[in-house]
Specification:
The structure is a homohexamer. Helices cover 4% and strands 46% of the residues of chain A. By secondary structure, chain A is mainly β. Chain A has one domain: Glycosyl hydrolase domain, family 43 (Tachylectin-2, Chain A, 5 Propeller), CATH 2.115.10.20. Chain A is globular, with a radius of gyration of 18 Å. The interface between D and E is medium-sized, with 23 and 26 residues. Strand 14 of chain B pairs antiparallel with strand 14 of chain D, so a sheet runs across the interface.
């Protein structure tokens, strides 16, 4: 049986149970691999005074509820990272001030801008990866154990880099990070690389994982989305792919399956998108036609997956699938192997 | 009487009766030269599994109903041509697989992409013109008599060319085709040329028919739309014109009247657009603000004209006019002669 | 007390009473410094036959009612200035023909295009400033006393210039004009300058007033909006600021306070926008995501301010504030001094 | 024996003897496949009053001497085609007025510009191919039998096309022409295509022959040079290849061997250049670093080949090789087959 | 007799005698309208310690010798204006420090950069025009009577402007200045405008004088060179015209004749260039292929004209002509009237 | 005494004696901080069959003579690294085949291209840094002890990076490397960064060392040249700076002094260039106007420094200075501190 049709229904999610995962059952008659939360957007515009838009943001379960690191663009248009909490992952309380990251001397650092955070838990510590404006756009890393104090770790790479995403566990002694070398503007190219580190500070052993294209929906560039999700079949990666049109770029969401041991090996990769801008909150806003996934929650016993995504660079939205549904779809729409 | 005010109400449509032409009467109080079908879009998104968007497509009457060659962009964003049928031109059944075009040896050809088809009936044969990705974007031609088997004819021109549209009858021994020389990307220029051929294979005797601009609504580029419609006054050509804004391009529809014997002569040309993006399905979608006409149906006894157009590179839509209404408007808004 | 928190509630509007100023009270629970007219847009699309869109336009009180000079883009996409009148500033009657500007010899001038007018009353004469296509895009000036006859004054500057706006009173013997040096296309930069003249014909003594950025909402370029409003605290300037995104530009409205005697001195400047595209008529249209203020009405006794702005380069809209509300907000969100 | 090393020393030039071919013996110690004429440039600057530069030009033997069609750029920088004669191919007499091309009605045509001519003799008629500015840059064709009267044949293709070069004999009933689809400026891409025609007027059956790159010396674009030279091994094609540097483009000369019967088949192609700009007249001039071959003379009995090339878009120069030398070199430096 | 052939040999130079004008007689056999000084360049590279290149500079007769304002690019590449003196206009002594320009308060001003000066004597005062970096690239004006103290006059225009050149006498109460609106980089367009002022401070009444093109040698942009030279036939203007090639721009020198009373009227304009880069010092240097005239000396009794020009943005060079020679040539190569 | 004038004549070169350093005494009357070898270029064009140009290359003393790693661009324009030897550093013998780099398994690696090598000796091992085309342009590292066998170390960084240069000794446990983040084409920006590593494989702790500009000679980008030279005053860094002109880029050489312990601290930096293209072999070639230093030899006892540089991307050239001369000059032309 070829990979194009291989049965994947026995794929198991690693990780524990998350009974209070935000969830809606698949709508009747649904033919799509993922479905939108019907009360989207989860976070609307002007969420608190001074906030203009809250979108491309990361959520993790913590202490029975949910914590998030949110990209908040102020009225001046400059984005910083804010902390928020929620009981159900749907109604959020977000702090009006950015998180304070302390350097090795315990001094609060100043940032020129911070955006598109991911939060990854490794061995009990939460690591925040974001696009950091200090010394160019590159991948900043900070850590926290309590979402109260945040320690600076490093700028992982030289500029220009975006969409850095750690794997949620170590590979032997190494941390692994997906990332996308970029340029200093609205980069018109971009492939996903894998880089390795023993200490989250010095990085090397870079490998090309996936190139943009040739499918048109991801013809311009691609970038890793939420932290890869461990499954029995491999690392499930949601990513964004970008189409070029005469009226700008369209960001859609796709999925790939990476080898458990060597995630530079791509086992499966969706031929088409999983989700593409169609809902009003995805098509209208400051940057129309953007779906940008940044975080995923999973509930291993049920196989449920909830993906948070930025919509139109304006809203935070949510969509759902199950590991079975998704892996079946991926197997049928696989263009690799 | 100057051409600017000449009476055109006696213009007759050539071609026969098409009593089942899709149709809606002009809305009361209408002041526009064309009016939209109120149940637009005719073809919505995700029309069949695997199809993302069906738009810029061509429809012809055949055997009492309607057949169409549709541009279908799959989930991977790559467009191919699909065949569809309809009894009323409104509700369509579209085949999930692209049409199979056979080469001279009867072998099914492979295509890298196919888009923006037109279908033109000449002497009982239907010719399909489209933008063909094999050997660059240029004008592919195939023929069919039954919409079951399709024969490859030629790539009419060298790259780069788009919007090739045959005239629906021969001029002596010659086929005539309107077309637009382009470049290898989102061409920021474009004029309409006329080219001639005895056999649909070798083309020459190229003439410039209409240049883009200077009116701003068509200041960037223009391209022929449906096959020219024969009338007693000349060939009626619907075409698209493109405006440049700081947020991208806007595609509107205009009209021109070409000389019956020498269609490189422009008798009338609309000073402004006929139809410009305003409806939600024209303004929101993968490429906002696009109206792209590709096919027209006519009913000679009533003078009715139905124009199919792509909307926002996402939907197929329909609008209506009559030859009288249109020719009156064109005479009043003519900027030629 | 630092400028960031200084109390501004005693600021008085200069100018007289305008009891019939268009007005809606602040909505309950409003937290924004300005609020939209709930029946926006004031002027919709296709307002009269031949008009496509009426937007970026200027309104002044005159003879108990309101007169306006409107940017009207015809169906051919080319803009010209039209005169309109209204009793309440909301329902408008607009002339289908452009205004006729006479040269020194009393001959009607021909214009290639005219757009983005402002109207400023100085010592009983109304001056119209607009972007004039004769001899490049630069600032044309004409005058009228009755909105019936219009006299040509000058092209104030060499090309390329846009967004020229006179101050509504003279400074000693001098007229002052804000303006924005530009280039010959969709300028990707732009700062506000001040220029001076004794006769509205010869201009010099140019000074840089405000630069674009570094805040992202105004990172690309800025341009003066309505004529500066005289207040006891300084000249209140509404202006537009432009954000760059991968899908185009976003135009928002900000405010600044200029020194009464030397308006090249910026006393206060909003750190973030006052109003950014959110309403459907601001986000959808020929140029999505544009708020472009061109005129303001004030009523000194009540402190009411009504701002007319172009929306999406498609509609004319209205928003409201009071001088107290605005100055308070500006003081709290000030990034200067 | 692989094509990389195949012996080619028995290759014979077709065509007759040309005992007075311009010639210099290979310099002692030469290791290059071609060698420059040591009295280059053959035609210097300001050759006659009103002429600024004479370069990219074509030469053929005729009536015991040599005739040429020369690209002459006037002091105004606009190029036209001039006729010249020479006894030895080295000292030229060039007419100060452009050639007069007559249309079908015998009327002298007007041209906006004409450049980069080739002259090809087929069945006793000389055909001139050039880049013709009438109706865009495309390939103009004219014919002459005596270099006194010139008849217009056609614009072979739609714009944009450059470097059209006919084969010097027919293939059955067909004329074949190499050509390079281009854009409307300093085209940054370009591959060589083959097109066919029965009458030199209507052209079709286009095939891609050779693509630019991947070698860097020809990484940007390539274009056919002199008319292909018939040999017993295939059509010998000199062509130009273009390198991109941070200070502009570098044009070098390469060679390929095309199949005698089906010249869309490339039998051999040089891995590196034959000749690259080094001489002062190649490196300094209006366009530094350009070698642009346009014509070749051959003497079958001796195997001698003389190639005329434009140097720095400023001079006409000459270089030499023999068919044996060249074919040996090509066999050793072949990257095809 | 049409202007194309009109006899101009009686044209007289205005201005007095300058017996020590730098001069070389026309070389025997010369067929060109101007001829180069055979000891060019007049000023070589690294003229004094700290100077890298001295080029685009202005020279005037003063007190029996010559004074100049020189563009000196330091080793850091930043240009400033330096004063120099010479007895014969050939051997120069240039001060190692930039000139000190005093503001109205007598304070020495600081400049970010200064380049491409012209010096024009009007009513006994020398005015320096240059491209001034304070507040954008625009035209700075300073005055001196003794080349010892320099007074700031104004920035004549808003940015972006270059190549501002005053006329050497007033027109009634008005100063006239030729200038070229530009953009903020290596402007790829540029026409010559005329602006007027009563006080050299406020400028207006702008008129378009000459547009670039259509001749290719001046197809990209044009700019006034030395101050216009008064003759009995009109103002003789040397200017630069710019050709675009795939390897950059080529600057040549042309000439025009402007109406004595209304210099916005062009009486004659050369169809081709007068002088184009050919000499080694014009073709090799920091910017190859640049001839940029900035100053002219005249001797009325003999009709001699000496033109100083920048060569390759690296050297100062000199060429010669006579008013008779030039006017004859211009009459024969005139493309106006 | 301020840094601008501080005496530096007691600066000592670290490193040992190199009595056979290539050398020429300073020419009499020299006023420049460095002087060219009068027999430049050291390596001419077409140095061995198959080699087109040998330039940007690195030389080190080894076993009493000199060894080099040379950038050799073949006739196909693709660069690879070749090994060469010389007794005197002037006459070279270069191997016709690229060096063979072995991976960890001892297998010879394949490279798409290799260019701009530096060779740095650290603790007895020679490290080669170059711009490596495998997995994007980034910094490849290999090591050798004998210039016979070469071991692959790593791609130090993610793409896009160029001009990576190791320091010739370790800082505690760390290797330090200067480098320049770039983009995927002819990068129009570029600053020098410092990165650190414990094993030459994983790199981090990136710091910005020097930014391009504001001086115009280095306004576009800068890049480290030879390995930093240890002196008693600090690390002496030769680097290239790039000027933008309308006809392309100009590469000159400058110098800086970095702190011995923390080389991210810039102690001195030249305000202007040390050497700028003037010699014929620097101004004419495939890329005119390029001076690109890649290697330096020093002789501590005499203070002599010989710098190898690429000229016009075509030749290898040599220039000389002494540490005293240079430090004096740098102190006088210092713009830091």
């Amino acid at each position: 049986m070829s990979s194009k049709t291989k049965k994947s229904s026995f794929t198991k999610l690693a990780g524990g149970a998350l009974p209070n995962i935000p969830w809606q059952d698949e709508p009747r008659g649904n033919t799509e691999p993922v479905w939108r939360y019907d009360a989207n957007p989860v976070i609307g515009r002007r969420f608190f005074p001074g906030a203009d838009r809250i979108y491309n943001s990361a959520v993790v379960p913590f202490k029975g509820g949910f914590h998030g690191i949110f990209r908040v663009d102020g009225r001046n248009g400059v984005p910083f990272l804010h902390h928020g909490t929620s009981k159900d992952g749907l109604k959020w309380s977000i702090e009006p001030k950015p998180i304070s990251v302390k350097d090795a001397q315990g001094k609060a650092m100043k940032f020129t801008y911070q955006y598109d955070p991911r939060v990854i838990k490794i061995d009990g510590t939460f690591y925040i990866n974001w696009c950091n404006g200090n010394v160019g756009p590159t991948i900043g890393i900070a850590s926290t154990k309590d979402f109260k104090s945040y320690k600076w770790v490093s700028n992982a790479f030289l500029p220009f880099n975006r969409n850095g995403v750690l794997f949620p566990k170590k590979f032997g002694k190494d941390f692994y990070m997906l990332n996308r070398p970029s340029d200093n503007a609205h980069t018109r190219f971009g492939d996903i690389y894998l880089s390795k580190s023993r200490d989250l500070v010095d990085w090397g052993r870079h490998e090309l994982v996936m190139k943009a294209g040739p499918a048109w929906w991801e013809g311009v560039k691609i970038g890793a989305g939420p932290a890869p999700i461990e499954t029995s079949a491999g690392w499930l990666l949601f990513y964004h792919g970008v189409l070029s049109t005469c009226n700008g770029l369209v960001y859609s969401m796709g999925a790939a399956l990476l080898d458990l041991k060597d995630p530079a090996k791509v086992l499966m990769r969706s031929d088409g998108y999983l989700l593409t801008p169609e809902a009003p909150y995805e098509c209208r806003g400051i940057v129309p036609n953007v779906i940008f996934p940044c975080a995923a929650l999973t509930d291993a016993p049920t196989g449920r997956i909830a993906v948070y995504y930025g919509a139109a660079d304006t809203y935070t939205a949510l969509c759902f699938t199950t590991v079975d549904k998704l892996m079946d779809w991926l197997a049928k729409n696989n263009r690799v192997g």
